[in-house]
Backbone:
C-alpha cells in the first residue's frame, strides 16, 4: 500500500486500478470524478480518508499470470482472455507474463523504461576468458551498442545475464558477436516475477505481495 499521501487524483485512480493516469485525466475532464462529493479538477489531491467516486466507469478485474513458454512454439497465450507482454523467440523458453491489463504494456515494453530481465544461457562452445568483461560492457550488434548488463559465469558452458532492454534476439546476437554459440536460452525472471519450478506450458497466477511489488514498479 502506498504511504505517499496526499497524492494526485490521477495517480490515485491508477493505484486503485480504475484507469491509467492519462485515462484518469480524461475522466476528470469529463467531470466524472468526485472527491467527498465535490467535482475533482486536474491536479486535485486526495488523502487516504477521502471518498473518491467515479461516475460511469466500471472497475475491470485485471488478471496477471506467469507462464512457462516451451521451446518450439511461437509467442502466444494458452488463454484467449490473456495476452503476452513481450515475446520469446521460438527456440527460447521460460518466463512470460500474461495479462488482460493494457495499462502496463507500454511501461513494461517501452525501451525508455528500465526493467530487469534475467536469462540462463548455455553455449555449445567454451566461454572465452574475456567473455564476461566484453558482454557486461555492451556489445555492438549491427551498429547498435547494447547497454551495460550483468553476467554471472556458472561454468565453462553456461552463464546468467541480466538485461534492462530487449532488442530482437539480443542475447543470441551479442553472443554471436563475441564468438559464442547459444545452445539453450531460458528466461528466469522479469523484475520481481520469477519462473521458479513452473512446469513448461503451465500457468501460475501472480497475486498478493508479489503482484503489489510488480505493479508499483510499473504504474508509479
Residues:
Amino acid at each position: 500500500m502506498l504511504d505517499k499521501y496526499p497524492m494526485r487524483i490521477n495517480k490515485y485512480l491508477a493505484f486503485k486500478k480504475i484507469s491509467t493516469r492519462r485515462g484518469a485525466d480524461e475522466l476528470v475532464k469529463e467531470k466524472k470524478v468526485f472527491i467527498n462529493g465535490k467535482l475533482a479538477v486536474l491536479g486535485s489531491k486526495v488523502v487516504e480518508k477521502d471518498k473518491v467516486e467515479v461516475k460511469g466507469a466500471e472497475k475491470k478485474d485485471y488478471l496477471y499470470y506467469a507462464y512457462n513458454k516451451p521451446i518450439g512454439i511461437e509467442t502466444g497465450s494458452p488463454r484467449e482472455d490473456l495476452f503476452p507482454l513481450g515475446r520469446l523467440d521460438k527456440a527460447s523458453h521460460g518466463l512470460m507474463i500474461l495479462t488482460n491489463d493494457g495499462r502496463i504494456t507500454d511501461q513494461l515494453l517501452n525501451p525508455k523504461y528500465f526493467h530487469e530481465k534475467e536469462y540462463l544461457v548455455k553455449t555449445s562452445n567454451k566461454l572465452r576468458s574475456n567473455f564476461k568483461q566484453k558482454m557486461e560492457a555492451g556489445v555492438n550488434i549491427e551498429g547498435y551498442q547494447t547497454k551495460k548488463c550483468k553476467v554471472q559465469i556458472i561454468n565453462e558452458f553456461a552463464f546468467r545475464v541480466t538485461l534492462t532492454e530487449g532488442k530482437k534476439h539480443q542475447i543470441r546476437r551479442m553472443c554471436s558477436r563475441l564468438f559464442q554459440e547459444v545452445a539453450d536460452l531460458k528466461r528466469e525472471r522479469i523484475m520481481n516475477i520469477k519462473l521458479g519450478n513452473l512446469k513448461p506450458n503451465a500457468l501460475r497466477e501472480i497475486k498478493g505481495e508479489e503482484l503489489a511489488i510488480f505493479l508499483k514498479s510499473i504504474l508509479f
Observations:
- Residues 61-113+197-220 form a domain with the Alpha-Beta Plaits fold (CATH 3.30.70.580).
